[in-house]
Specification:
Structural class: mainly alpha
CATH topology: Farnesyl Diphosphate Synthase
GO molecular function, one term: transferase activity, transferring alkyl or aryl (other than methyl) groups
Number of domains: 1
Membrane topology: Multi-pass membrane protein
Strand content: under 5%
Order of helices and strands: HHHHHHHHHHHHHHHH
Subcellular location: Membrane
Shape: globular
Largest sheet: none
CATH architecture: Orthogonal Bundle
CATH class: Mainly Alpha
Radius of gyration: 20 Å
Keywords: Membrane, Transmembrane, Transmembrane helix
Distance between the termini: 66 Å
């Protein structure tokens, strides 16, 4: 049976629409969490990468649609290239896709392990609290829930990247906890560029409530976290210095340049910082764990004691 062109075009159109729901978060969520999962597990074999990316993206899609159907008017100002303001999909159909993804995410997770299923379920609950119960309208709940969802994505990806989908190491658990803490205390770096749209929807973010203090907290928080993470993952002096210097540059950018366009650039710098600090567990596995195998003191053993 010969396939006709229109159905193929329709399929491509709909797949592109789904991609657009997540496009803005590829740099801020998908890439950092993928690199983190591969670094924290560490990766069992290369074929696991596609599983990690697919699982994280599927759950990112579910979370993003749930968030974007709440305030399409905000996206007309902040992100007009998203599917709803572009008119690529109706609000009614987007709601159908949002809830159809719930059993899909759970079913996919269940094929791997009960632990991954539980992680997916927890992420679903957090998404409902964030979007349907409007927790995103208050900065503290927004930051806390976003960080917890971020941690769930990291845990799910780490479970998939390892050789055992039902277990993560103590080092991986430490990495996930540090990821949640660092993200919760700095994620308002992503909100500066969206202040105009947040004002329209009534969302209360740190940059709106404390415009000066929130920038100072980023300028100080990112370098302080970099110093802390350098010690935790036992970076060599040169690597630690480069990491801290980049974090200082990123923090200073938020202070010195405060236009909307500059805030977009600052957010890109912050996204790169996220990726860098999320691959630090790989440094530990490659260099420190190798030293342990040569008979030097074990950090993991120290954690267990």
């Amino acid at each position: 049976m010969k396939l006709t062109l229109p159905p193929l075009l329709d399929l491509g159109y709909h797949l592109h629409t789904l991609f657009l729901f997540t496009k803005a978060d590829i740099r801020t969520a998908l890439l950092p969490q993928t690199f983190f999962s591969l670094a924290a597990a560490p990766i069992c074999r290369a074929s696991r990468i596609i599983h990690v990316v697919a699982w994280i993206w599927l759950h990112l899609l579910m979370c993003n649609i749930a968030n974007q159907i709440k305030a399409p008017d905000e996206d007309k100002i902040n992100k007009p290239s998203r599917p709803l303001p572009m008119g690529r999909i109706t609000l009614y159909n987007a709601r159908i896709v949002r809830w159809a993804l719930v059993p899909v995410c759970l079913a996919v997770s269940a094929t791997y392990s009960a632990q991954l299923l539980a992680t997916s379920f927890e992420l679903q609950v957090l998404t409902v609290l964030y979007s349907e119960f409007h927790a995103d309208e208050e900065w503290f709940l927004k930051n806390s829930l976003t960080a917890m969802m971020y941690g769930c994505a990291g845990l799910g990806g780490t479970l998939l990247a390892g050789c055992d989908c039902s277990h993560v190491s103590q080092i991986a658990r430490l990495a996930i906890q540090l990821s949640i803490a660092a993200f919760a205390s700095t994620l308002h770096a992503q909100d500066f560029k969206d202040v105009a749209g947040d004002l329209l929807t009534g969302r209360r973010t740190l940059p709106m409530l404390f415009p000066v203090a929130s920038r100072i907290s980023i300028a100080l928080g990112i370098p302080l976290w970099s110093i802390c993470l350098s010690f935790v993952w036992d970076l060599d002096h040169l690597t630690a210095a480069a990491f801290v210097m980049y974090s200082c540059f990123t923090g200073a950018h938020f202070i010195l340049y405060q236009t909307v366009e500059a805030d977009r650039r600052s957010c890109k710098l912050y996204s790169l910082w996220l990726i860098i600090h999320h691959v630090l567990p790989a440094y530990w596995h490659i260099f420190i764990s190798a030293a342990v195998n040569r008979g030097l003191p074990s950090f993991e053993g120290h954690l267990q004691s």
